[in-house]
Amino acid sequence: MAETPNSHSTRSKGLVIAAAVAVVAVVIAAGVYFVGMGDQTQTQAASRADADVPMSELMEAGPLEDVVIGDPDAPVTIIEYASMTCPHCAHFHTETFPKVKEKYIDTGKAKFIFREFPLDILAARASMLARCAGPEKRMALTSALFESQQSWALPDESEAMDKLLGIARQAGFSKESFDECMADEELYQNIVKMRARASSEFGVNSTPSFFIDGKKLGRDHELEDFDAILEEDHAGAGDKTEPAPAD
């Protein structure tokens, strides 16, 4: 039997409703996961909290590809685990990271790797947005999200997502590409896996957390705290000049 315009319209509406229900189901499931994983995360991380981790373990391929900032061949590797809704992470990226970058990354002494450790669903969504921007724009959008954190990291999820959409538009997203990114269940699950792996294998239990060539940085994250490890444990790192021959 031929399909009438009304039946076609009804079918289209049905598909839209089905898609909306699927997205809601994913969000609800995600919420249950994040609510339920708090105690588990703390328990798993407790045995390795504040412990150093071999670089061979830290650099094993994970659920998502790393984006390296700086010279890939730099002698020192700084790895950060951060949550996009964490105020301490925002403070680091707006106040301290530019100094670390100028002193160590831009000079070729160290390379920097940013990894996701979302503390809530909204943080995961913001991380997804940064990932969807592509490798070349990812850290620029990450920095913009940290700088504007107070404007979008809001208790009302609907308002928070509207604010994220506004930031996404400024980064070149359309409403359609933003929605497509937010509906990427595989990407979402891989970001969640990043957090789970960091917790269970590397003892990460707070954000931001840093490893410098596998050595766990303490609770303070100012430039002098990086200096204490980079200048004492890696004296001369990045100095590519040859020593003068002995007389």
| Biggest pleated-sheet summary | 5 strands, mixed
Got a strand count?
A: 5
User: Which sequence of SSEs, written as H and E, runs from N to C?
Assistant: HHEEHEHHHHHHEEH
- CATH class membership: Alpha Beta
By DSSP (H or I, 4+ residues per run), the number of helices equals 10
Mean pLDDT: 83
* CATH homologous superfamily identity: Glutaredoxin
Class by SSE composition: alpha+beta
- As a percent range, the share of helical residues equals 55-70%
CATH architectural designation: 3-Layer(aba) Sandwich
Radius of gyration using CA atoms only = 21 Å
Strand ordering within the main sheet: 1-3-2-4-5
Low-confidence stretches: 1-33, 236-247
Beta-strand percent range: 5-15%
Spatial gap, N to C terminus = 98 Å
Protein name: Disulfide bond formation protein D
Biased composition (Basic and acidic residues): 231-247
Domain Thioredoxin-like fold: 65-231
Family: Belongs to the thioredoxin family. DsbA subfamily.
